[in-house]
Design a protein that fits this description.
One of its GO terms (biological process) is glutamate biosynthetic process. InterPro entries: Aldolase_TIM, GltB, Glu_synthdom, YerD. It contains 20 helices and 15 strands. By secondary structure, the protein is α/β, with parallel strands linked by helices. Helix 6 packs across helix 16, helix 11 crosses helix 12 and helix 12 runs parallel beside helix 14.
Length: 536
């Protein structure tokens, strides 16, 4: 061991300082500090688990420290305003400004490169329309096959699925209070309806996942009696069967027993202290036909409330099989929520986050086109979620084929989330995604309730201005030809020319399949209503 090597200098300096300070009777804190560093250095040299500590005693700890605060250094000092990782500073700032009722105007022009491929805009009209009231709504669930239908008038911008357990009690209280104040809907997430969802009385979309939380038997199967007890409460406006989510499609989950508190156990209908398992697939059905029968059963048991399903698109033939089952049975859901692969979650394997699940644009196009091609689009509303923050995000998504949009992380920012990306650690610095009572008390519910409502209202005001500039009076009038995308520095195309769109009924004519986009020509014939597996 060459103790004169620069990598040992700090260690040697600590030993020398200790000896000199003792010899000269220096103030007590000097030899104490030197002694502590010396002990650290000796420990580093003797331990066998970390090579860096053996080769760089004491000094290695500086690296570990700066590595631990690297995300904060990047966010506070080095982050570009427009680079989204996963959301840019500009995206977060617009939410904070609108939530706090601060000015959301920007001086000196755009920071975006308008000549970069992928840049998008909406064409304006030389004769703008009069600006309409910003409370844009659509009707969901006026189902022709359900005489007891209870249609719901939904905002075009709503809170996406986030469960109690993933979010804190105070976060749920503030989100639902904001939904109540702003007249929009709050998706419960698959963790079921907690007391915090109920307290403020905001409209709920009850999401039912494969664990059937809130409507399960002790063995984890679906409980009709428990479902009726929750689904028929007036606060529940819609029922959403979760097939998969964009951030981790095809992946189940386990909430360790140590985290299953009495509140979570009561809310989900599971045993306290035992692992809470979300299977990767449903036990109530195995085929597209059985799935639609289950959806129809839920709609009937709920008293005719709008009932649909949420999914991230994977194998195209599986969704096509669901649509073929609709054609075979005449049973159609009231809505489908398309969750893009760019969606977020509290925790997911990196391979799923980065490389599983179809991004929202392609997923939305597939769902919209399939329903149009099967002559079912007018019976089924489409919601969409996946990194939707601004009024332009909403307008773009509606132009591509959606009827309404959901946002999860946008409303988390409204609650005060700073994108620390520590949701999975239970150490959320702002009390949004934690069950630590000391941390979540920092989230003051009345203040954050107002911010949630403000973000929703100011975003829709911006949407009203945007569509008026385009010469329109309601977001439902947005179509693909309103959206323009740059292909290269000297070429742009309308989305309607760039992306494939089917004509009504085209999928029902076998002679047309060969001229349709390959995904339909190849996979539509392979799909079957009797199974999620393709016809070989």
């Amino acid at each position: 061991m060459n103790l004169l090597s620069p990598r040992y200098l700090v260690f040697i300096a600590a030993i020398v300082t200790l000896a000199v300070s003792l010899a000269l009777a220096a103030p007590w804190w000097i030899p104490l500090t030197a002694a502590a560093l010396t002990v650290v250095g000796i420990t580093d040299l003797l331990q066998t688990k970390r090579a860096l500590r053996r080769n760089y005693p004491i000094l290695a700890h500086f690296r570990f420290f700066f590595e631990s605060i690297r995300p904060e250094i990047r966010q506070y000092f080095l982050e570009d305003d427009t680079v989204a990782e996963p959301f840019s500073r500009n995206q977060r700032s617009i939410v904070y400004q609108r939530a706090k009722m601060d000015t959301d105007k920007r001086p000196f022009g755009t920071q975006l490169d308008v000549y970069a491929p992928g840049y998008e805009w909406i064409n304006h009209s030389i004769s703008p329309a009069p600006e309409q009231h910003h409370d844009f709504r659509i009707e969901i669930g006026n189902h022709p096959d359900c005489p007891r239908a209870q249609p719901y008038s939904a905002s075009v911008f709503n809170i996406s699925a986030m469960s109690f357990g993933a979010l804190s009690a105070n976060a749920i209280l503030a989100l639902n209070g904001g939904a109540k104040a702003g007249g929009f809907m709050h998706d419960t997430g698959e963790g079921s309806i907690s007391p915090y969802h109920r307290q403020n009385g905001g409209d709920l979309v009850w999401e039912i996942g494969s664990g059937y939380f809130g409507c399960r038997n002790p063995d984890g199967t679906f409980s009709e009696a428990n479902f009726i007890a929750n689904a028929t409460t007036p606060q529940v406006k819609m029922i959403e069967l979760k097939m998969s989510q964009g951030a981790k499609p095809g992946h189940g989950g386990v909430l360790p027993g140590a985290k299953v508190t009495i509140e979570i156990a009561t809310t989900r209908g599971v045993a306290m202290g035992q692992d809470c398992i979300s299977p990767s697939r449903h036990s109530a059905f195995d085929t597209p036909l059985e799935m639609l029968a289950f959806i129809d059963r839920l709609r009937t048991l709920s008293g005719g409330k709008p009932t649909g399903f949420k999914l991230a698109i994977g194998h195209p033939w599986e969704f096509f099989g669901i649509v073929k089952a609709m054609l075979a049975t005449g049973i159609t859901p009231d809505f489908i929520v398309v969750d893009g692969g760019e969606g977020g979650t509290g925790a997911a394997p990196v391979e799923f986050t980065d490389h599983i699940g179809t991004p929202l644009q392609e997923a939305l196009l597939l769902v919209h086109n399939t329903l149009v091609g099967a002559n079912l689009r007018d019976r089924i509303k489409i919601g969409a979620s996946g990194k939707i923050i601004t009024a332009f995000d909403i307008a773009r998504t509606l132009a591509l084929g959606a009827d309404w949009c959901n946002s999860a992380r946008g409303f988390m920012f409204a609650l005060g989330c700073i994108q620390s990306q520590s949701c999975h650690t239970d150490r959320c610095p702002t009390g949004v995604a934690t069950q630590d009572h000391n941390r979540q008390r920092a989230l003051v519910v009345p203040d954050k309730t107002r911010r949630v409502a403000n973000f929703h209202e100011n975003t829709l005001k911006a949407l009203a201005q945007l569509i008026a500039a385009a010469g329109l009076t309601h977001p439902s009038q947005l179509k693909a030809h309103h959206l323009v995308r740059r292909i290269s520095p000297n070429q742009v195309k309308l989305a309607s020319a760039l992306l494939p769109y089917l004509e009504p009924g085209e999928l029902l004519d076998p002679s047309q399949l060969s001229r349709l986009p390959p995904v339909f020509g190849l996979y539509w014939p392979m799909a079957q209503a009797e199974s999620f597996n393709p016809v070989c």
